[in-house]
Amino acid sequence: CNTTQVCNSSEYETLAPTRTSNRLCALTTICDYPNTQYETIAPTLTSNRACANLTMCTSTEYESVGSTLTSNRQCISLSVCGTDEYQFLGPTYSSDRICVTYSECFYPDQFESRAPTSTSDRECSIVTRCRNNQFEVSMPSVTTDRLCGDLTMCAPTQYEIVAPTLTSNRACANLTMCTSTQYESVGSTVT
After folding, report:
1. Given 3-state DSSP classes, what are the helix, strand and coil percentages for the chain, each rounded to the nearest 5?
2. Angle value at C-alpha 38, between 37 and 39, nearest 5 degrees
3. pTM value?
């Protein structure tokens, strides 16, 4: 008679002892966690541990749920920003990208001073208003500001021949100077 073998804590029983045969034990499989595997079935005294390969997220996915010793990681496809959106925050291994709708410029009070890109919002600026001593050289558009120019001031030796408007400059002409053999029949005016 021989003593029946006892499986240790790192083994499981593969064949139960009988009256004529000894117990057979085998090493319990060790999952390669956290590198490549996780445990799908826990070992018992009479069954081996089962392992499965961990899912690896691709470059178009992010890890939405991390793996544990007994569960697989979960991967979800990365969001794709729409044509009216830009990437506000880029994705990481464990987070999705954040897309934000482009700002809208409200013409004619605003114009687009910087065009949007796939990773930046458009910038809007207030359209310039010409001052009282200016005229509009060029009108604003959805992507350009209004350009203003300073009104010409007629010199003391000039008079105004064309009055300024909101969109045109004043025109001046030189006063006629009487010679020593002439006299002034009509006095000069501003216009």
Report:
1. 0, 35, 65
2. 130
3. 0.67
